[in-house]
Amino acid sequence: MDDRAFDALVADLRGAQAPRVWSLLVTIFGDLAQDGSMIGAAVLGRIAAAIGIRPEAMRVALHRLRKDGWIESKRIGRSSVYGLSRKGRAESVAASPRIYDTHPPCGAVWLILRDPAGPPDQSECAGVRITPHMLLSARPADDPDVFATRIEADRALPVWISDKVCDPETCDLSMNLAARLDRLCHALAPEVRLDPLQETVLRVLIVHEWRRIVLKVPRLPDHVFPEGWRGPDCRSRVEVLLARLPRRRPDDVDCGGSA
Amino acid sequence: MDDRAFDALVADLRGAQAPRVWSLLVTIFGDLAQDGSMIGAAVLGRIAAAIGIRPEAMRVALHRLRKDGWIESKRIGRSSVYGLSRKGRAESVAASPRIYDTHPPCGAVWLILRDPAGPPDQSECAGVRITPHMLLSARPADDPDVFATRIEADRALPVWISDKVCDPETCDLSMNLAARLDRLCHALAPEVRLDPLQETVLRVLIVHEWRRIVLKVPRLPDHVFPEGWRGPDCRSRVEVLLARLPRRRPDDVDCGGSA
User: Fold this and answer.
1) Which long-range contacts (CB under 8 A, 24 or more apart) does A158-161 make?
2) pLDDT in tens, A186-224
3) Tell me: the pLDDT tens digits for A24-65?
4) Which helix (H) or strand (E) holds B222?
5) Which residue from A118, A146, A160 is facing B115, i.e. has the nearest CB?
6) Closest alpha carbon to A89 in A21, A44, A37
7) Do A134 and B118 make contact, defined as CB atoms within 8 angstroms?
8) Which residues contact B199 (CB under 8 A, 6 or more apart)?
9) Do residue A158 and residue B115 have CB atoms under 8 angstroms apart?
10) What is the Cα–Cα distance from B70 to B87, expressed in whole angstroms?
11) What does the pLDDT read at residue B125?
């Protein structure tokens, strides 16, 4: 695909504002380097440039991520390579099922009520807190002091509950992303040919945009989300697009250019 | 049954304190005069005396009930007869199913949650309010703004819910009454013979003691009540005892004595 057409695709997928660079880097390393691969500075620079990120912003973000212990770097000759630290890798591995899962979180949800006259719930919550004494949880409660009732897939929740599962702003983000992914699906007709860098740039942007939404919402089945939630659409389009845009080894991304 | 043995039965059934007279009269009229019968002053006096109520307290209570529009009186010769007013009869009729029902209220209960950020529930509540935004109701909710879940008979509710259905004090009353009714059942062996006044006094006391408990608790099935609730025991003993102690026409109660 020529640069002009490709830039238009990127601009549409990226949206009006460039992503925060350190956050985009977390996506890039999580997607390309979770297996322990190192990514050369040149490859990172090319991916970032294609997304509209200035080299200086990139350097600052790399420095910050290294300082935070998320990535590590090595010098090889005159240039540097970067990879996930032990911590960065562990967190990437932990987040991956949610980002890459092609199925929604599985079906069971419980509404759990605690005594409103008692202390608010402080437990580790596998779900979402509706009020200090009311949870939606992916786990049943094993406590005689709580009332728990399973929420079946066929029941509509009132808005004051489902809005706590996913606020209207995040629903809007999901709707917006679903539309962008839809346009990208149509643009990437089978006959469209992309080079490895182009594939990687699109792939990384897709993962990044979806990650920002899916990690923000609780890991609960779609049926407890509000009507405006387009997570299922996003999820299925992410699946189709990532299959079309396979993950490359970092060294294979840098097709011919030099940093 | 001789007077001494009978007085002992009454004393046990009545408990340590004589009932409030106007409340006992409500029971007497509700039980004996709901069909429009009039009760002579002499019969009322004999029932009251057997329960340990002074004639003066009786006169005051009759006066009060007449003033409240619950009963009406007629003079016949030198004495008076009393009957339920239209209002007193309507309220007695309304309460009767709960008092005399030999079955517990039927099985369906819903826990209903309203938006805690919204106004508290003001609706006519066929059940019990657990918090301003949480009801246990005998009716399902037909409102998309509420969350309602049916409480099946096999589930134990946490204490902070069941205690709102019936407080520990009322549970204790039910336990105490169940024990007294149990003793009465044993005392009234088939060979024990009672005259109509004795039957009526026991009958009225049984109805009175049960009425004070059953009308205090919400009309919900027993399975949402706390463990200490002995309503089912009371209900079944009331059924057995009232069958043993048939309702007499007021004129038939006054067996030979004169006021």
Assistant:
1) A158/B115, A158/B144, A158/B145, A158/B146, A158/B147, A159/A226, A159/B144, A159/B145, A160/A130, A160/B115, A160/B116, A160/B117, A160/B118, A160/B145, A161/A111, A161/A130, A161/A136, A161/A224, A161/B147
2) 999 999 999 999 999 999 999 999 999 999 999 999 999
3) 999 999 999 999 999 999 999 999 999 999 999 999 999 999
4) none
5) A160
6) A37
7) no
8) B245, B246, B248
9) yes
10) 6
11) 66
Tell me what pLDDT residue A125 has. 66
Residue A88 burial class via C-beta count within 10 angstroms: exposed 0-12, middle 13-18, buried 19 and up: buried
Q: What is the mean pLDDT of residues B177-190?
A: 96
Q: Tell me the pLDDT tens digit for each residue of B29-49.
A: 999 999 999 999 999 999 999
Q: What whole-number distance in Å separates Cα of residue A195 and Cα of residue A210?
A: 23
By C-alpha distance, the chain A residue nearest B155 is: A147
Q: Do A145 and B161 touch (CB under 8 A)?
A: no
pTM of the model: 0.79
ipTM confidence: 0.75
The pLDDT of A156-183, averaged and rounded, is 96
Tell me whether residues B144 and A156 touch, CB distance under 8 A.
yes
Q: Which helix (H) or strand (E) holds B112?
A: strand B110-113
Residues in chain A closer than 8 A to B156 (CB atoms): 144
Question: Using a CB-CB distance cutoff of 8 angstroms, which residues of chain B are in contact with residue A142?
Answer: none
Residues of A with CB under 8 A from a CB of B: 111, 113, 115-118, 131, 134, 144-147, 149, 156-161
Closest partner residue to A158 (CB to CB) among B134, B144, B159 is: B144
**Cβ <8 Å between B134 and A146:** no
Residue A71 three-state SS: strand
pLDDT of residue A164 exceeding 60, the answer is: yes
